[in-house]
UniProtKB/TrEMBL annotation:
GO terms for biological process: xenobiotic detoxification by transmembrane export across the plasma membrane. Residues 17-404 form the Major facilitator superfamily (MFS) profile domain. One of its GO terms (cellular component) is plasma membrane. It is a multi-pass membrane protein. Keywords: Cell membrane, Membrane, Transmembrane, Transmembrane helix, Transport. GO terms for molecular function: xenobiotic transmembrane transporter activity. This is Multidrug effflux MFS transporter. Its main location: membrane. It is found in: Cell membrane.
Length: 410
């Protein structure tokens, strides 16, 4: 190993890095596909089951809660036994849950299997982040997380487009067969291409550290707590959009499923632009300062949506600030991940799991509020998004305290 190697991943060739990121990206992409692919089908599911919009939105809530629960289980488990076994078991659960959802007789059973889908898909997200942290640190960690995000951002861009196009030929149930096939392919790729990344000495240490000790290390870290709150608020704002957008743009603005899929893809490109720009900005600006700008942009964009509705600016008055809000989420994601994981290499799986559990758990609780208020305009969506942005900004300034965060190393 070269003398200049600081982290295990530094010795990987360019080809090995590309393959590593592609496989991990596809695994993490299983989560966004699970969430986003069936969004264009919300109105169809509502009609088929004869239930309210809020009832169908709760199936999305079940998925996000499942993500949270799954990550709490998979993360500490992967710190104890290694990364591969938890990944394979979780993904297998996802495949079985997809098949159950495809045959669900009512919205309650669908919600149960959606929750299990979330539990299973959580494995890919947690283990991928932990594997990257096993191999990289400092600015290299930012670069690798942003490259992982570059691959995984394609998932929310492609998922609703693929889902909306499939709905031209199949019923919504067939979307879950597609997801089951995706999960089965990922199991095969993980078996062939992913080796264990957790060092043997760390596995030995983790086996002697209690779960309580690992969580204590996280809960006594003010930066981690503050960043976890910011992450939860950013995800909640994004999931408010995810859970309400299909009803808003198809039922209120009259979009077809295909037009909605195109719009969703365009907005997802904003996430792509944001996370790649953010990674480059970390070379000259600390990630905590990037979060300062993005949280403020989200506050302004969300209340611009309310102003656009109130002043009668029409569809452009919603779409432009919405794009800015979503692009700001892209700026925030790599910064949140690196600040949360930078000081927790020895409990990377637990840190990633807690971060994800808080993100998806809070998002799952917040996102249905818009449906309960009623989706007759974009104003309720903008209001809830604005509240989440304000809380995230407050956490940055009063909990994280940007001036106290140490600079990243090369």
């Amino acid at each position: 190993m070269p003398a200049t190697t600081v982290h295990p991943g530094d010795s990987k060739s360019r080809g090995e890095l590309v393959l590593f990121i592609l496989v991990l990206g596809a695994l993490v992409g299983l989560g966004p596909f699970t969430i986003d692919m069936y969004l264009p089908a919300f109105p169809s599911i509502t009609r088929d089951f004869g239930v309210t919009d809020a009832a169908v939105q709760l199936t999305l809530t079940g998925t996000t809660i499942g993500f949270g629960l799954g990550q709490l289980l998979v993360g500490p488990w992967s710190d104890r036994v290694g990364r591969r076994i938890p990944l394979l078991v979780a993904t297998a659960i996802h495949v079985l849950a997809c098949l159950g959802a495809a045959f669900a007789p009512d919205v309650t059973i669908l919600g149960i299997f959606r929750l299990l889908q979330g539990v299973g898909a959580a494995g890919g997200g947690v283990v991928a982040m932990a594997m990257v942290r096993d191999l990289f640190g400092g600015r290299a960690l930012v670069r690798m997380l942003s490259r992982l995000a570059l691959v995984t951002t394609l998932a929310p861009i492609l998922a609703p487009v693929i889902g909306s196009q499939l709905l031209r030929f199949v019923e919504w149930r067939e979307l879950f067969f597609f997801l089951a096939g995706y999960g089965a392919v990922m199991i095969g790729l993980a078996l062939v291409f992913l080796r264990e990344t957790m060092p043997k000495d760390r596995a030995h240490d983790a086996g002697h550290a209690t779960v309580g000790q690992r969580y204590r290390a996280l809960f006594t870290d003010r930066t981690f707590i503050g960043v976890a709150i910011i992450g939860a608020m950013v995800f909640s704002g994004l999931f408010v959009y995810l859970s309400s957008s299909s009803f808003l743009f198809q039922d209120v603005y009259g979009f077809s499923p295909q037009e909605f899929g195109l719009l969703f893809g365009i907005n997802s490109i904003g996430v792509l632009i944001g996370n790649q720009t953010s990674a480059r900005l970390t070379r000259v600006i600390g990630p905590q300062w990037i979060l300062a700008g993005t949280t403020m942009a989200q506050v302004l964009a969300s209340f611009a949506i309310i102003a656009g509705v109130s002043l009668g600016w029409g569809l452009p008055g919603v779409l432009v600030p919405l794009f800015i809000f979503i692009m700001s989420c892209g700026f925030a994601f790599p910064c949140i991940q690196v600040l949360a994981l930078a000081n927790h290499g020895s409990e990377a799986g637990t840190a990633a799991s807690l971060l994800g559990a808080v993100n998806f758990g809070v998002a799952g609780a917040v996102s249905p509020i818009v449906g309960l208020i009623g989706i007759t305009t974009a104003a309720p969506m903008g209001l809830i998004m604005g509240i989440t942005a304000l809380i995230g900004s407050a956490s940055l300034w009063f909990v994280v305290r940007p001036r106290t965060v140490a600079a990243l190393t090369d």
